[in-house]
Amino acid sequence: MAEEEAAQQHFHAAGATVTLQGHHAPGKSSASCWGMVIRCRAAVAWATGKPLSLEEVEVAPPKAGEVRIKIVATGICRTDDHILEGSFPDVDFPVIPGHEGAGIVESLGEGVTSVKPGEKVILVSLPHCGECSFCLNPESNYCLKSHLSEPQNLLPDKTSRFTCKGKQIHHFLWVSTFSEYTVIPEYAVAKIDAAAPLDKVCLLGCGFSTGYGAAINAAKVKPGSTCAIFGLGGVGLSVVIGCKVAGASRIIAIDINKDKFAKAKELGATDCLNPRDFKKPIQEVVTEMTGHGVDYSFEAIGLADTMIAALASCNMNTGVCVMVGLADSGSLISIDPMLLLSGRTWKGTLLGGWKMRDCIPKLVSSYLEKKFNSDLLITHTLPITKVNEGFELLRAGKSIRTVLLF
Ligand code: COD
Ligand code: ZN
Ligand code: ZN
Description:
This protein is an alpha/beta fold. It has helices spanning 2-7, 78-85, 133-136, 198-201, 207-219, 234-245, 261-267, 282-290, 304-313, 338-341, 356-368, 387-395, and strands at 10-13, 16-21, 37-44, 53-59, 66-75, 101-108, 120-123, 162-164, 167-169, 181-185, 189-191, 226-230, 250-254, 271-273, 296-299, 320-323, 345-348, 378-383, 401-405. Helix 5 (207-219) crosses helix 6 and helix 8 (282-290) runs parallel beside helix 9 (304-313). The longest helix is centred in the middle third of the chain and has 13 residues, at 207-219. The chain is globular.
């Protein structure tokens, strides 16, 4: 009887009713679901090309070294749309997308010591195992446990914590923030200040940190310099914020959607260009505007052509071009080697070069100290039930960031 009772417990958290299956661990509060399966809502992608489907899923308790987190808020990033289109590499379906989330620790697997239940966290899609050669290198933010080296579709023990309608559901980059509860390894969790508003700082889990870090860490933009940013989505506009904070004197914002220009100007852009307004290639326009090209250029779109245009827009000698966007798998770039011979630097960056687990708490502190205002990127806030509406806004070019709330 006691077992049946335990299997049917309900409790209310943040307005949602969550069903528990199993038993409470001895000594744990009855308000916690420690050691139990949680049934909750999640947006599941069953196959490519289909809208997300809001489902009730089962979330197993965390195993050793894992943390179960109640997601409070998650942004929608273009990369989530790339999953739905099937253009993000090595994703297995069905999958729960979402990778820009913030939440509260619900329970811990054995041996987890760096976070406690009730603490606020941001989930990081670029983990930090702390043991691989890249993690041990202070210059690198790329961990060999990252998706591009070893797909993060299942947790490190090669199993999933999610099921739905009797089927195993895959994790996305381990984080799967479109689920009300998610389980991830401890080394992909960043503990943040208890004062941080989760519905705002969730953006620091991807878009903001990626763009801001591209300017601050990858390009190392200097005061008084000139910059050009291709693509004014949440990521490109975060590059604009980074260039402004770094003291750039001229910030040229480039997009084919002129509706993005007002926000770019608000964030610090000095000039806005629509390549479709010019007969000549946009790199020639930028070069003429600045004499010899900008000091720093950034590509935050993910297209081969705009990557070449960004490269050619920075000056031939000391110019630095940073690639932020991910091109479709299989796309190739062909360039004139002369573009690089005279000294230009061409580089890429993932998640803005931050060692995410260490740096996210510091970025949250900078947010609280108002060093930057990433809130200006949030154009829409919707309940998770309207997740597909959030994607429609992004596809129509009407939103910068939509934050989904559980
Ligand atoms: N010329 C100029 N602007 C263009 C063009 C073009 N040919 N095509 C599209 N754009 C503009 C769009 O109008 C839009 O404003 C902008 O480019 C793209 O913005 P969004 O809102 O679609 O996308 P973001 O900002 O959320 O993300 C863009 C990325 C390219 C960074 C993202 O899709 C990506 O590739 N991510 C993978 C790389 C990475 O490290 N990501 C971190 C984890 S996601
Ligand atoms: Zn992203
Ligand atoms: Zn590592």
